[in-house]
Amino acid sequence: MLAKPRPPEAEVEALAEAASLDALYGHLTPEGIIERAVRDHFAGEIAAVSSFGADSAVLLNMIASIDRSLPVIFLDTGKHFEETLSYRDALIADFGLKDVRVISPDEAALHERDPDGKLHLSNTDACCDIRKVEPLARGIEPFRAWFTGRKRFQAETRAALPAFESVGSRVRINPLARWTTADQADYMRKHALRENPLVAYGYLSIGCFPCTQPVQPGEDARSGRWAGQAKVECGIHLSGLDRSLTDASL
Fold first, then answer.
1. pLDDT tens-digit series, residues 171-186
2. pTM of the predicted model, to two decimals?
């Protein structure tokens, strides 16, 4: 049997670094995790990725309390709810965020593969690749690490989510991984954070409007995404993102 090819050295180092950081700091509060990452381990080389969705205010508020100038990457897929875009602008003002970077799909790729904007009707994976995975790869390319707001309770596929994990040669950090819905609600109330207006209508995980619907009683928070399909992730949290970082167009 042929041996599996060894990952590049940078990927091995990132894997070891993520495991070490998770062992050292994975038990800390989300604020503690953020502060260690921003000030000790990835100073000047870290960003946050935010959808400005259903529960984005919590992570963004924590980040703003530590460093308002931390780059925050927002993917403007061209298919967002208007409420999401308005919510984004409101949170930027609420928290005084100083470096929100809006990343958009490549126009040439859209013209070639989705000229009428209807690719999501026939191939949701291809649509996400163009509108989310490749743009995010460009957005995080300058950084060694980035924060996400993912949590274990959101879906079965995230049940074992660590605070620190490697993606290729980079480290992805999930400060809220161990939080529950109660933790989240308590923080929102304590800090009087505004809620995405779509939450009141049952949208508990908010993506692009053609592929998002309200969550039904008893279902997990992400069940309204690509409802009726086997698809559960857009790809930005999967290995495809790392492959996009090596694309010749970057």
1. 999 999 999 889 999 9
2. 0.84
The span from the CA of 38 to the CA of 243, in Å, is 26
C-beta atoms surrounding 137 within 10 Å: 22
Q: Which residues are catalytic?
A: 234
From first CA to last CA, the distance across the chain in angstroms is 35
Amino acid at 175: P
The listed CATH number (1.10.10.10, 3.40.50.620, 3.30.365.10, 3.90.1150.180) that belongs to domain 9-195: 3.40.50.620
The DSSP-derived string for 151-209 is -GGG-GGGTT--SEEEETTEEEE-TTTT--HHHHHHHHHHTTPPPPGGGGGT-SS--BG
Reading phi first (left if > 0) and then psi (alpha if -120 to 50, else beta), residue 146 is in beta
Q: For the segment 130-167, what is each residue's pLDDT rounded down to a tens digit?
A: 999 999 999 999 999 999 999 887 667 777 899 999 99
Token pair for 88? 């984004």
pLDDT of residue 209: 86
21 with 147: CB under 8 angstroms? no
Structure tokens that stand for 100 in this block: 């929100």
Q: Which residues of 166-194 are buried (b: 16+ CB within 10 A; e: fewer)?
A: bbbbbbbbbbbbbbeeeebeebbeeeebe
- Which pLDDT band holds residue 207 (cuts at 50, 70, 90)? confident
